[in-house]
Amino acid sequence: MELLPVRPTVKTPAQAFTGDVYMTPIYNGSGPSRMTVALVRFTPGARTNWHSHAVGQTLHVTEGVGLVGIRDGSVLRIHAGETVLCPPDEEHWHGAAADTFMSHLAMLEAKPDGSDPTTWLEPVPDEQYQQANKKDN
Fold it and tell me: Are 38 and 106 in contact (CB under 8 A)?
């Protein structure tokens, strides 16, 4: 058994996020585990860029209301206690709804070779984000 210390919270990089987003690392696996877990906190209106994960990603909402969108225009409205499974290589984005904070645990695995499993893409345009907020989800 091992007790891990609390790690510092960092502001996420502007080149991969819109708005103010903060991440607290929880766990980074080391052989044989390749799991990474982080608590990610989004201020109202904040969101990720489009991105994908080679081995998929699991999001577990811990607070608030958020959105997860995929390229075909589908958007899920997510709430505290719910879990979203993003399949490998599916381009998606996620973040807070326009009027509330949202926090989630982001869980993913590194590639078998240990390299970064995330491919970051372009920002979600404001118009597309605003439309996602209007959908009756």
Answer: yes
